[in-house]
Specification:
This protein has five helices and eight strands. By secondary structure, it is of the alpha+beta class. A hairpin with a 2-residue loop joins strand 3 and strand 4. It starts with about 30 loop residues before the first helix and ends in a 9-residue tail after the last strand. This is Glutaredoxin domain-containing protein.
Length: about 200
């Protein structure tokens, strides 16, 4: 189970020079440039971003997402968790970051300090050999407690449509609400640091 001493790791961590898709390069989302800004502190990672799903439709994917989130939460660092089942905007964002126009995206995907680290297998391997701890050293600690407004889900019901994603206009009938996502949710103003 344990790797013999002196054996090199087979896990590859992508850096800025290895692949153009390994970095956030999407300019349409306001927080992505902030995630990539490594000029200020090139040696210190600034953030952990995890794209995952909380839907249990595909059990192996759900289990992988849950395992990766559990591993990362064990380090008690601040994690920006982006649940694709809560907002399809996260899927679009991830596809643009990875340079995929459309198609199937495997989850979870983990980025540390603007660099793509990997999916479930890579995170589990890095954790087993102790490399993941080195990657998250120096990150800001996680804030204790749970948000009172959203209960830690980072989304709340839309004030305009009350979560139905439909509005009734007397002249034209029902129309889609433009203030919320397809699930009738908006980002929690209390705990969400970055707008979509």
């Amino acid at each position: 189970m344990w790797r013999p001493r002196g054996t090199k790791s087979t896990v590859r961590i992508y850096d800025k020079s290895s692949s153009p898709t390994s970095l956030f390069h999407c300019s349409s989302f306001k927080d992505v440039p902030e995630l990539c800004n490594e000029e200020d502190k090139p040696t210190q990672p600034t953030r952990v971003v995890v794209y995952f799903t909380s839907l249990r439709v595909v059990r192996p994917t759900f289990e992988d997402c849950r395992a990766v989130r559990s591993i990362l939460r064990g380090f008690r660092v601040s994690i920006d968790e982006r649940d694709l089942s809560m907002d399809s905007g996260f899927l679009t964002e991830l596809q643009q970051i990875l340079g995929q126009s459309q198609g199937k995206v495997t989850l979870p995907r983990v980025f540390i300090g603007g660099r793509y680290v990997g999916g479930a297998e890579e995170i589990k391997q890095l954790h087993e050999i102790g490399e993941l701890k080195k990657l998250v050293e120096g990150l800001p600690p996680a804030e204790p407690g749970v948000c009172d407004a959203c209960g830690g889900y980072r989304f709340i019901l839309c004030d305009e449509c009350h979560g139905s994603h439909k509005l009734f206009v007397e002249k034209s009938g029902f129309k889609s609400c433009t203030a919320c996502n397809e699930n009738g949710l908006i980002r929690c103003p209390s705990c969400s640091s970055a707008p979509l």
